[in-house]
Amino acid sequence: MWEYGLAQDYHVVLLHVSAGGQSFIYDLDTVLPFPCPFDTYVAGAFRSDEDIHPQFRRKFRVIRADSYLKHFASDRSHMKDASGNWREPPPPYPCIETRDSKMNLNDFISMDPEVGWGAVYTLSEFAHRFGSRND
């Protein structure tokens, strides 16, 4: 008998689409150029999803910056272990909160298109939508 665990992981980058339509990725955790042209980033950071079981294929939630800044809130509870102790020391600045929310990180990292803000894309949809070959 086999048991499978599903770990949710997320990585946050900035996607900038210039007035001319060219897209760049700003990723602080890569050895790729900074900023990196979108097509170069996708080619260098991701392999094809073809050999990955459909259930585990990557998805991308793209949120407009103004919406992100208006709605995102985190009380840092995700940075604590099961006993409530910090895994690492928290940043020295106050928690990010909005008038309406103290914690909604899960809505931002959810890949359920019915939850949260923005739009959810598969890898191929993401590459087509923001890449230079996006007819």
Automatic annotation (TrEMBL):
Keywords: Hydrolase
EC number assigned by the record: 3.5.1.122
Pfam families associated with the record: Nt_Gln_amidase (PF09764)
Keyword Transcription regulation: no
Gene Ontology CC terms: cytosol; nucleus
Keyword Amino-acid biosynthesis: no
Single GO MF descriptor: protein-N-terminal glutamine amidohydrolase activity
Superkingdom: Eukaryota
Reactions catalysed, as given in the entry: N-terminal L-glutaminyl-[protein] + H2O = N-terminal L-glutamyl-[protein] + NH4(+)
Broad EC category: hydrolase
Residue span, Protein N-terminal glutamine amidohydrolase alpha beta roll domain: 9-130
The family this protein is said to belong to: Belongs to the NTAQ1 family.
Assembly with partners or alone: Monomer.
Function summary: Mediates the side-chain deamidation of N-terminal glutamine residues to glutamate, an important step in N-end rule pathway of protein degradation. Conversion of the resulting N-terminal glutamine to glutamate renders the protein susceptible to arginylation, polyubiquitination and degradation as specified by the N-end rule. Does not act on substrates with internal or C-terminal glutamine and does not act on non-glutamine residues in any position. Does not deaminate acetylated N-terminal glutamine.
Protein name as catalogued: Protein N-terminal glutamine amidohydrolase
Source taxonomy: Eukaryota, Metazoa, Chordata, Craniata, Vertebrata
Gene coding for it: WDYHV1
